[in-house]
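Example 9 (inverse folding). The structure is encoded as follows.
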């Protein structure tokens, strides 16, 4: 097996069988950030039972001023769980089936990501890349939890561009022969989840071969002829960009204190994550629309035309050109398109204009809104919206390959309750 693989088997820790999943598993820390009631209900659900809720710092509490005390308590809880709660282990991968509210089943493989094969630095082209621009101000709170921590628990979801279903789906086809390690409902509408241990050396080798094939130069050149010969992309971050970036920042910090030999084996060099196939029918990728406030729709349209002319983007009415979108205001809605866009994806071109516009109109502000009915409602209240076209799955990888990263808030993967819940753990301290 290629032990230098960017995604590899891990020593994965699980709680004792008598601990219910509904209390143990918890939604990602960056969900429901304006909804304290959700997190109060989560605390009630967990009650006095061991729970990953006690291993994280929900971002709803970041402004409370007690962050240091919370982090200290988290670290103490990790030490206790490592001794007393996490009594089971998988040496390999965990194959996961998550049943969403729609009834669709999302398949994944949990293993460890090599942070040496990942970077969020602008201009880099590693095997593992962020999908969206990293907002560095979001990293320090997560670093505070990870720095000095005994354990990690993942909500990071990676995506593989695997239209032929070579990586994950063949493992799912053999699940009846695997050891089931957990099954149950997740708290507060999180749906159902089940996991199986993937430890057979033949299956581990099969996963490694499939991953190496997906990350080969040959496969990369065939998928992305516009970037032929560039450094191949193996995995892209689908969700949890900032958690993975925090793990990387902590590793770079720690690495300076280690010898070259220690750097090869220290457990903090890796980060636990789930890899899914972007082409799975259970993965929905929806566009996030842009809405401007405190502006006039006619003024925005005029500014857009002027900006397009200055950048030779070739804007015109109708959807006949390369990148089409809808500009909607309180009383009007027009389909427009760019003939020579300034970015690989429509959202990138629109964001370039919005950034230009906001610099010149300090009274204006922008918001990012998921579903079209909500956007239309905001336009009736005076908002001016850029309604983006459906986000094609192939565009995610295309955008990362050709543009480096996608603009922030380009897409959404499912509802908050369908994000990855914390379940598995791994030691990151020697």
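The amino acid assigned to each position is listed next.
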């Amino acid at each position: 097996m290629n032990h230098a693989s960017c995604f590899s088997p891990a020593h994965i820790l699980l709680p004792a069988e008598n601990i219910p999943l509904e209390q143990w598993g918890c939604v990602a820390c960056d969900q429901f950030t304006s909804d304290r009631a959700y997190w109060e209900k989560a605390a009630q659900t967990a009650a006095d039972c061991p729970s990953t809720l006690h291993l994280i710092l929900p971002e709803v509490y970041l402004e409370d001023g007690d962050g240091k005390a919370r982090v200290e308590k988290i670290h103490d809880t990790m030490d206790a769980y490592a001794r007393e709660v996490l009594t089971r282990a998988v040496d390999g991968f965990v194959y996961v089936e998550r049943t969403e509210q729609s009834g669709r089943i999302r398949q994944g493989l949990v293993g460890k990501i090599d942070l040496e094969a990942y970077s969020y630095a602008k201009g880099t082209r590693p095997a593992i890349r962020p999908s969206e621009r990293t907002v560095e101000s979001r990293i320090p709170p997560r670093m505070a939890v990870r720095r000095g921590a005994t354990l990690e628990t993942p909500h990071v979801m990676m995506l593989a561009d695997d239209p032929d279903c070579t990586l994950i789906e063949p493992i799912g086809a053999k699940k009846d022969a695997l050891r089931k390690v957990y099954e149950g409902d997740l708290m507060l509408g999180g749906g159902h989840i089940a996991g199986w241990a993937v430890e057979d050396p033949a299956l581990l080798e099969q996963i490694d071969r499939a991953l190496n094939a997906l990350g080969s130069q040959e496969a990369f050149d065939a998928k992305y002829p516009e970037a032929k010969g560039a450094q191949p992309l193996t995995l892209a971050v689908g969700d949890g960009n900032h958690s993975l970036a925090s793990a990387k920042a902590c590793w770079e910090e720690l690495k300076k204190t280690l010898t070259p030999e220690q750097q090869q084996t220290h457990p903090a060099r890796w980060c636990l994550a789930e890899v899914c196939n972007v082409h799975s029918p259970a993965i929905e990728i929806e566009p996030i629309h842009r809405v401007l406030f405190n502006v006039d729709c006619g003024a925005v349209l005029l500014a857009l035309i002027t900006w397009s002319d200055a950048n030779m983007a070739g804007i015109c009415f109708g959807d006949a050109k390369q990148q089409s979108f809808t500009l909607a205001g309180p009383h009007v809605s027009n389909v427009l398109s760019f003939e020579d866009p300034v970015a690989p994806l429509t959202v990138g071109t629109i964001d370039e204009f919005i950034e230009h516009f906001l610099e010149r109109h300090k009274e204006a502000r922008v918001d990012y809104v998921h579903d079209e009915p909500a956007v239309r409602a905001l336009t009736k209240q005076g908002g001016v919206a850029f309604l983006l076209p459906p986000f094609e799955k192939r565009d995610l990888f295309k955008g990362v390959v050709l543009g480096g990263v996608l603009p922030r808030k380009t897409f959404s993967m499912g509802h908050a309750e369908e994000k990855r819940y914390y379940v598995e753990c791994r030691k990151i301290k020697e």
